[in-house]
Amino acid sequence: MAERTSSIATALAVTGCGVVSPIGIGFEAFMEAFDDGRSGQVALGDYFAEPLPQKTACYLASFEVRDFLGRKGTSFYDRLTALGMVACDLTLAHSDLVITDANREMVGVIVGTSTGSLKSASDYSRETMTQEHPHWVNPILFPNTILNSLAGQAAIRYGLKGVNATVAGGQLSSLMVLRYASMVIRQGRANALVVGGVEEFTPHNAWRLHHTGLLEGTNTLMGEGSAMFVVEATTAVRKAGRFPLAEILACEVIQCGQLDEPEGLAQHFAGCISRALDRAGVTPEQIWAVSSSETGNCLLDTIERGGLNLALPQPLAHQLRVKRQVGECDSAAGAFQLAALLALYRKCTDGNRRCSLVLSVGEDGSMGCAVVKGGG
Amino acid sequence: MWSKRIPNGLTKMDRRRVVITGIGIVSSVGFGVTAFKEAIKAGRTGISPLQSFDTARFPYHMGGEVRDFDPAAWLQRLDPALYGPSSQFAAAAARMAVVDAGLDPELLAQSRAGSSVGSTSGEAGLVDRMTAAWLASGPADIPASLMAQLPANRLAGAVNRELGLTGEAFVVATACAAGNYAIGYGFDLLQTGEADYMLCGGTDSVSRYVHAGFLRMGAIAPLACQPFDKNRQGILIGEGAAMLLLETLAGAKARGAHIYAELLGYGMTCDAYNMVAPEPVSIASCIRRAHVNAGIRAEDVDYISAHGTGTRTNDVVETAAIKAVFGERRPPVSALKSMLGHTIGAASAHSLAACALAIDEGFIPPTINFETPDPECDIDCVPNQARAASLDVVQCNGFGFGGNNAAIILARHSWRNELVL
């Protein structure tokens, strides 16, 4: 039997985008705020009873899930689930995908995360240590402690019976979700997917990020929120006479072990970018914009810029740094970078059908690159 | 319609065939493939009183903990001090799988190779430690090294680092079906030519809050896990990892590797019904998808490794789904969890490893602790004693919270050739 290697990865059409961000809720609001250069920074004041390592963050201080989804079924959502569910709701409303009993078995949900809701898990653990009887915990809250709580809740709320998965990729989560989604659709395991990332601002996450030292000495704040997208096979969308917001042509992810030699790692990253371009059938000269994961962290930014400079010969028309406005949103970071790129495509009509990159470099040595093409 | 689709317009013969050539096990019944095989053949139990946390004030305190795990004995590169127990289990099991496969580790590291690891809760035991530290002296004094070990992406990162792999390090968190999802993704990467070797499986470790949560739900048994028994009382929390080395059939043949089994295909569905209660129609649909994807008929299946948790609900629902798909001709169905306890995100990976061994060695692992038949679970659960059997095609079920279902189909690797030729 002939061995066969794949050629170009299946292109994903992005047909919807829902954003719950510190600078605006809804794609239009996010787009305007991003374009205006607005920041989501707020003073944390006394929003939290617990001590915090910082005084400001890109925090959605007035966010209430019931304002968007009502009270029914939402009262036991933790913050992570609530932020993600509203983003799912918005993206499904934004997309022209119609979900009926005829197709819901082939519509799924794939969400990126780092730790799930660390607060939910830790609060549960705390109950076992402070209650008179350690197992006198609330059974209704137990599902919030597992990593796939949001994906399961989204499936229930919207009746999505197709592939349902949660991908834990840390900083790379959103790109890994796109890569996994591409494989799921390519293999015929689903026809449409709600995909994206989510992160919550809680004292637990604030301390976790603080202890990594990743943002130390940078101007980047910690952020939170969720960006979700509807993705489908491009061929099917075009065949139906529908127009995608953008296409994901390829998505490559690598893992490079210890982050000790920035130069060598930049070369690895350049290789990853080049392979993504190759898989997308796009030349480096065709790249118009880059949505970067830079935070000001010296080591990670050096790898990212170094890789980009090695892979692309020319200066870029646009370089987006969405973390300056929404903060470092960890497993939602890549999703916000993609949302920022979609906002750019919408604002700049000369971006139609032009190609861009979403880049991601994680502190664990993982790196990724998605090649995106403007819709129209 | 799903059943009419040939993905990508390719015929099955165009696709690369995927086989299992290495198995690595960390479990309460032993380390490594040989110890595991002997234990599940003998029907040994891995259940003992829990020691990972203080169980004094818990009403029930039995579980399937891994005892005497010495990371240094298994790991060659990874510094265990930097990783939590779930990551250590996964990396150790992956190293064992590579040794078992007889694959040159240098060649592997230079190949298009990565890892795909399933987990329910990541490093749940570390969440307990972090919480205790917070309660004791506040969040500012929690050791940074402990915080750094929490993200679940580190599970696959540990595997890549231990083996020097540079392909993707993928962690899928689909609750107690996670092992099957992770192995399924590895299968897809190999079948489509995205990778040449994948280390795939699942891992989880025991934690206080997960034990408490299941206990509060009434899902924990006092002493023993008794799947399909009329008097079953629930699960016992277990832990460990199972990692499989997947490669192409052509590659395995070229290097003269021992082939445990071929992965024919798999199916996934979501109940979209309830976060914790399973739903039989969706599970039946998952099994049918797996059969279609694998290119088999229900009557080809010689044995089913059940999700078989030993809760009242699961075993009835799983039996109903199996009856809906298989009708009156139901193959033997046994539950590994009777021996290992519920190894959570590793459970379906442990089951799949057992399935591969069952095909390779010609036996069906038993459901131990079986005493009283349940008319609502009218299947042959291979009670208490392993059974000699020549198996061509086996099915591995995995279901989880969030309504996640995945079933994988394995076959003796020569089975398909005999059909085709």
Characterize the structure shown:
The complex is a heterodimer of chains A (376) and B (421). Chain A has twelve helices and 13 strands. Chain A has helices spanning 27-36, 66-69, 79-94, 118-130, 149-158, 173-186, 203-212, 234-239, 262-280, 298-311, 323-326, 333-347, and strands at 12-21, 24-25, 41-43, 56-58, 107-113, 164-168, 192-199, 225-233, 246-255, 287-291, 318-320, 355-361, 366-374. In chain A, the strands form two sheets. In chain A, strands 1, 2, 5, 6, 7, 8, 9, 10, 11, 12 and 13 form an eleven-stranded mixed β-sheet that branches. A two-stranded antiparallel ribbon of chain A has the order 3-4. Chain B is α/β, with parallel strands linked by helices and 421 residues long. Chain B has 15 helices and 15 strands. In chain B, helix 3 (85-101) packs parallel to helix 7 (154-163) and helix 11 crosses helix 12 (312-326). Chain B is globular.
What key attributes describe this structure?
heterodimer, A: 376 residues, alpha/beta, Peroxisomal Thiolase, Chain A, domain 1, 2 domains, eleven-stranded mixed β-sheet, two-stranded antiparallel ribbon, 12 helices, 13 strands, 36% helix, globular, B: 421 residues, two-stranded antiparallel sheet, 15 helices, disordered N terminus
